[in-house]
Design goal:
single chain; alpha/beta; 15-stranded parallel sheet; 26% helix; 427 residues
Length: 427
């Protein structure tokens, strides 16, 4: 064993504080540490990236770690067969650039698979393979080819356990009758993400409404439509009408990633949409219109707010603050000349804030130190902090906590999730 004799449980507990990179470095130091580092408890949330046909030792290591999530680059049937053999318990698989016509058929052997993401797939076996995965709860189809939307819809409609569906292919749009048919067949669906593009054109007012719910007099459009989260990607008005959300009053989360920055307030549909969302708790906006156009329309129920690439002025933030005084989480990645003034007023505008994400560029340290006035602030995430050890971030942390009882954690922005597609990321 190692020079310092400690029980294995203690070493494992120590290793829990290491990053994945540090754990791999420690693993190389000696045979005992290699064995301990591969203990399954240290890799509960890890994601293995598979890029080629690996040897026995690679798969044995993943098996010892009980890896439950993998990302497969340039997917082939041989690699998926290895996954089925060595990781039969796998719960999440992300396939990237799948051109092997027989590859997806292998997925049927993964009996515990709950989450499947397929990006840049051109396999004809896609729809038939989905039918063997009726246990799926999360499905993301991003830029799929050689499969018509009618075939995809027919297959997806059989996955009655789905709670989350992402369809990101604006070249092969889903029409109203097809979408409504899918939604009526998926009773457990809570989250829907669509990438809208020019080929969608101008959609009907009732595009999201459940026709089944409207069949009986006195039944509201959303009565049998349980979506709680909706994401619109690549969006530009007037694709959806001002009343498009009348049948979605149960939404608690709305994300709109606009295709570009916009100016004309007369085209903005967001103001009308927000008026119908009376239980909305999370709102995420990327690009699109200046905040001043919809600041006074944000529902008072919102507690999580994200603005990325949005043109913002201090006055519009003040107006929004009056609308959402109970805001807990705020993500500000703004398009403005001086975000320093906005950060400086955050404690007064959002006094209950617990988590703040913002950029440090051109914002003096003295401004960030004002955040000590937020009595409930627990976490400050610096979106543009340098990777690795940063003296500036360490100094800011120490100064923030000098009079805050060490309650504020200053963190770097988390890396992008490899197990999903990049359609929803701004920038």
């Amino acid at each position: 064993m190692c020079a310092i004799q400690l029980p294995e449980e203690i070493w494992i507990r120590v290793f829990e504080y290491l990053s994945d990179r540090d754990k791999c470095n420690v693993r190389l130091s000696c045979t005992d540490f290699k064995r301990l580092i591969d203990h399954w408890s240290l890799w509960k949330d890890s994601v293995a990236v598979v890029q080629t046909f690996y040897n026995f030792h690679f798969w044995k290591t993943l098996s010892q770690r009980k890896t439950k999530s993998v990302v497969v680059q340039k997917t082939t049937a041989k690699v998926l067969q290895q996954i089925a053999t060595w990781l039969p318990w796998i719960g999440s698989v992300t396939l990237v650039e799948c051109g092997d016509g027989t590859a997806l058929v292998t997925l049927g052997a993964l009996k515990h698979l709950k989450r499947l993401v397929i990006r840049q797939c051109c396999c004809r076996s896609l729809t038939s393979s989905l039918l063997s995965l009726r246990q799926l709860t999360h499905l993301c189809l991003c830029d799929v080819q050689k499969a018509s939307i009618s075939e995809i819809s027919a297959a997806v409609s059989q996955l009655v356990n789905l709670t989350s569906l992402h369809y990101h292919d604006d070249k092969n749009p889903i029409r109203k009758t097809t979408l409504n048919g899918m939604l009526r067949s998926l009773p457990n669906l809570k989250h829907l993400s669509l990438k809208l593009g020019p080929k969608y054109g101008i959609l009907p007012d009732d595009y999201f409404w459940s026709t089944k719910a409207c069949e009986h007099a006195g039944v509201t459009p959303d009565a049998k439509f349980g979506l709680s989260s909706l994401e619109l990607l690549n969006y530009v008005d007037p694709c959806l009408s001002p009343v498009a959300f009348n049948g979605l009053s149960s939404l608690t989360k709305l994300t709109v990633h606009y295709r570009k920055s916009l100016i004309n307030p007369n085209l903005c549909r967001l103001t009308e949409w927000l008026q119908e969302l009376r239980v909305l708790s999370e709102l995420n906006i990327s690009l699109g219109y200046p905040l001043s156009i919809y600041a006074d329309s944000v529902p008072r129920t919102v507690q999580h707010l994200s603005l990325m690439g949005v043109n913002v002025e201090l006055q519009s933030v003040r107006i929004m603050g009056e609308r959402v005084p109970d805001l807990l989480h705020l993500h500000l990645d703004l398009c403005c000349h001086n975000s320093s003034d906005i950060i400086a007023e955050v404690p007064r505008i959002f006094p209950k804030l617990q988590i703040l994400k913002a950029r440090q560029h051109n914002v003096p340290e003295s401004v960030f130190l004002r955040l000590r006035r937020l009595p409930q602030l627990k976490q400050l995430v610096i979106l543009d902090a340098p990777k690795g050890h940063s003296p500036a971030v360490l100094s800011l942390t120490q100064k923030l906590n000098s009079k805050a009882n060490n309650r504020i954690h200053v963190l770097r922005s988390n890396s992008k999730d490899q197990t999903t597609c990049s359609c929803g990321f701004y920038g």
